[in-house]
């Protein structure tokens, strides 16, 4: 069997052909975008379902959305949007092939060990924590809504609420698993090179996409109701 | 890459026009078509904008040159697995998970464990052994 692609692809910044892949689009990245565009159509189906139930049972929307805790979900939304910023900082680190912090990661208030020295691993861990807080918040929100009598089977509103936000929550959970694998890879790699940077970047595409979908869902479900 | 991004971006005004026309014809009473057509415009702008963004960051490819030669396309294509059994392991465990949804949820738990093993095996395949990097 022939070895994986060629040496240049797996070499880090010190490799002889660092920009060899720059003369053509990265297949993994283009493929991820095409797949995410199909994910957009998956969520289009969920939006269509939401608006259809709303059109045929408008009276439910007069009472049921009052059970939602708007300040709580707004805070959780801000947390998720900020996690995209942390994720992008991790991408910038991955693009300079820096897997981990240059100094001690836990002293961000100092100049020499500050955020500027953070590598992909630290930023992605922060993104993971923010995403995990989002999921915990969603579980907490579901528990409160169920105690107020809004369940998957209580009404058409309950069904579409849990299906749309639940499928989004499953996507966020999948993203959290992906972050763990990417962080794990940064420990396993002898040298953090193009392959590691590419998988970190496409995971960030997925994360940004899921974040944008949540902004759409939040606007539809919590703002315009 | 102008042609590729043009094909996808070109779809966006088209699908927007379809969405608006569909809404007007149905009196905006039928939300499925409206939601899906507007998001189809989103699908095309997403791919098109990404290709346009990528085109600005790379040099012109041989495909972009009317006089390009096939040999000019030689070089790095990306990173590929020489062979791998892990996708098969992942698909079998996914099948067990879905069979569990029909048979009983105890089977989902078994499938999920196998899925976790297969996923980790696949992701870390080239970090040990002969092809480790």
TrEMBL record, chain B:
Q: Where are the transmembrane segments?
A: 7-25, 31-53, 94-124
Recite the UniProt keywords alphabetically.
Answer: Cell membrane, Membrane, Translocase, Transmembrane, Transmembrane helix
Q: What's the main place this protein lives? A: membrane
Q: Can you say where in the cell this protein is located?
A: Cell membrane
Does this entry carry the keyword Cytoplasm?
Answer: no
Protein's membrane topology:
Multi-pass membrane protein
The EC code for this enzyme is: 7.1.1.9
| Catalytic activity, reaction form | 4 Fe(II)-[cytochrome c] + O2 + 8 H(+)(in) = 4 Fe(III)-[cytochrome c] + 2 H2O + 4 H(+)(out)
Which purpose does this protein serve, as stated in its record? Part of cytochrome c oxidase, its function is unknown.
**Which family would the database say this protein is a member of?**
Belongs to the cytochrome c oxidase bacterial subunit CtaF family.
Its quaternary organisation is: Associates with subunits I, II and III to form cytochrome c oxidase.
Protein name per the record: Cytochrome c oxidase polypeptide 4
Q: State the organism's lineage.
A: Bacteria, Bacillati, Actinomycetota, Actinomycetes, Kineosporiales
